[in-house]
Amino acid sequence: QIVLVSGHLDSWDVGQGAMDDGGGAFISWEALSLIKDLGLRPKRTLRLVLWTAEEQGGIGAKQYYQLHKENISNFDIVMESDEGTFKPSGLGFTGNAKARDIVKEIMTLLQPINVTDVYDSADGTDIDYWMRDGVPGASLHDDLSKYFWFHHSQGDTMTVQDPNQMNLCAAVWTVVSYVIADMEEMLPR
């Protein structure tokens, strides 16, 4: 059984893609690194995917889906961060009401950093195939007030990234992915 965390590498026009979507790739990598460094071993596999070609029609995600859809019942949740890694506020979630209640309970663990909101739906081109087939999905919600200042521009460099805000995003990603991967049962569908 698999909990998938992801971001994509899609800077194809200008800039370096450090924020869009290097930030999502960074926090996904960091979540798995933190779990490993803490010596935690969840019941399910945590899998990192760094998607390619999202801007060219999502062909990397489509290929991955085609290769793994026969095992779709083993995917517990698919998580994608694709809107920068500014100050987080919570998660977008797509899934049934019982699964949403579980995710809301998990998010209460993040009260100390004031990131507890669960929004109506998850967004993510790269996880849409899975969610359409009933796999619960989550996307990071963060402060988008500066996102389009840098989106697909020459200004999208590492200087855009605030290490403290990225650490908060990584904390959200780490807690949610680990807790879901270590629950007795998969999220309900």
CATH fold title: Aminopeptidase
Q: From the alpha-carbon coordinates, what is the Rg to the nearest angstrom? A: 15 Å
- Please write the string of helix (H) and strand (E) elements: EHEHEEHEHEHH
Q: Strand arrangement, largest sheet?
A: 2-1-3-6-4-5
Whole-number tally of structural domains: 1
The CATH C-level name is Alpha Beta
Unreliable stretches covering 5 or more consecutive residues: none
- Per CATH, the superfamily is Zn peptidases
Shape: globular
Summed up, the helix count is 6
Report the end-to-end length measured between terminal Cα atoms. 14 Å
Mean pLDDT: 92
CATH architecture: 3-Layer(aba) Sandwich
Number of strands: 6
- What amount of the residues lies in strands? 15-25%
Largest sheet: 6 strands, mixed
Class per helix and strand makeup: alpha/beta
Subunit structure: Homodimer. The monomeric form is inactive while the homodimer is active.
GO molecular function: carboxypeptidase activity; metal ion binding; metallodipeptidase activity
InterPro entries: CPQ (IPR039866), Peptidase_M28 (IPR007484)
Protein name: Carboxypeptidase Q
Describe the structure using short key phrases.
189 residues, alpha/beta, Aminopeptidase, six-stranded mixed β-sheet, 6 helices, 20% strand, secreted, hydrolase, CPQ
Describe the model.
The two termini are 14 Å apart. This protein is globular. The mean pLDDT is 92. It has a 6-stranded mixed sheet, with helices on both faces. The chain contains 6 helices and 6 strands. The protein is α/β, with parallel strands linked by helices and 189 residues long. The chain has one domain: Aminopeptidase, CATH 3.40.630.10. Helices cover 35% and strands 20% of the residues. Its main location: endoplasmic reticulum. InterPro entries: CPQ, Peptidase_M28. This is Carboxypeptidase Q. GO terms for molecular function: carboxypeptidase activity; metal ion binding; metallodipeptidase activity. Homodimer. The monomeric form is inactive while the homodimer is active.
